[in-house]
Automatic annotation (TrEMBL):
Designated name of the protein: Uncharacterized protein
Residues spanning the signal sequence: 1-19
Segments of this protein annotated with the region Disordered: 108-127
UniProt keywords, alphabetically: Signal
Organism in which the protein naturally occurs: Litorimonas taeanensis
Length: 127
């Protein structure tokens, strides 16, 4: 019993005499990533113009004109549904958007959606 008490007491003294020291991580060296130029020059690309999608509508106006025949006028309107676009493609016909020159025209061009391209009077009865 004395041995057990002595052993327990000595273990308790040994544990209390130890101090803990924090583990210090080695300093990490961070290297900045190497700059890689991913953009392509316009001279290496092909410019492609996708035409605008349009919709043609006809509007007929009928005006009463007594005692004569009514005046009928038909108007043909061509409206833009989707504007024309300018894109650039590489040698594999893949669209490229990362172009080195900042002043290159890219994207929608020309008349916008809903704008009228032509408004032709198709004739009618003038009475």
């Amino acid at each position: 019993m004395r041995r057990l008490t002595f052993l327990t007491l000595s273990t308790a003294l040994f544990i209390s005499a130890c101090t803990t020291t924090p583990i210090v991580d080695a300093p990490q060296i961070v290297l900045p990533p190497e700059t890689v130029n991913t953009c392509l020059p316009v001279s290496a690309l092909t410019k492609v113009i996708i035409p605008a999608e349009t919709q043609t509508r006809y509007a007929t106006t009928l005006i009463d004109n007594p005692p004569y025949e009514p005046i009928e006028t038909t108007v043909k309107q061509v409206r833009v549904v989707k504007p024309a676009q300018i894109i650039y493609v590489d040698s594999n016909n893949q669209e490229v958007i990362d172009i080195c020159e900042p002043d290159v025209e890219i994207g929608d061009t020309g008349p916008g959606v809903g704008e009228i391209l032509s408004d032709d009077n198709m004739g009618g009865d003038a009475g």
